[in-house]
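chain below, 162 aa
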Amino acid sequence: MNLLSDCRILLLGLWLGAACFFSVAVAPSAFGLLPSRELAGSVVNRTLAIVNYSGFIVGIVLLASSFAARHNAHRIRLRLEQGLLLLLTAACAVGQFVIAAWLSALRTQIGRPIDEVAASDPLRVAFNDLHGYSVTILMIAMIAAIVAFFLIVRRAKNTDNF
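prediction:
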């Protein structure tokens, strides 16, 4: 393996680690330990933004660097890797620039802590739906990143060119 391969693997591994840590430690701990769900939601929202922005940037960097040795790579595996990196990048972008923006607009429209809104209220239902979409889109990004990680490692092991 060479320096470029090592850097690509490190970048993707760091993002995956951050996304996993957020999913299994930060979000549950914030809601379990902080005195209010509103405060926990603010911590989770801020941390998720970091995960999404970094996933978007890492995805772009890895996608661009995937073209460095494309002539020596197995074409189908390379296209699969690029597709997965594109999916990672798009999922993080949608999570941050679409879903998080809609959630923020809903919070503003609601104007009070979400727990004070009746579960049947249309704004609360929309908020819960968007939260579900946010979780799903992060899972899609993480799965794409895991598969891309193994493809990149396999290619790095099989060639000295990348």
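The chain is about 80% helix and 0% strand. The chain has one domain: 3-158.
thats it, cya
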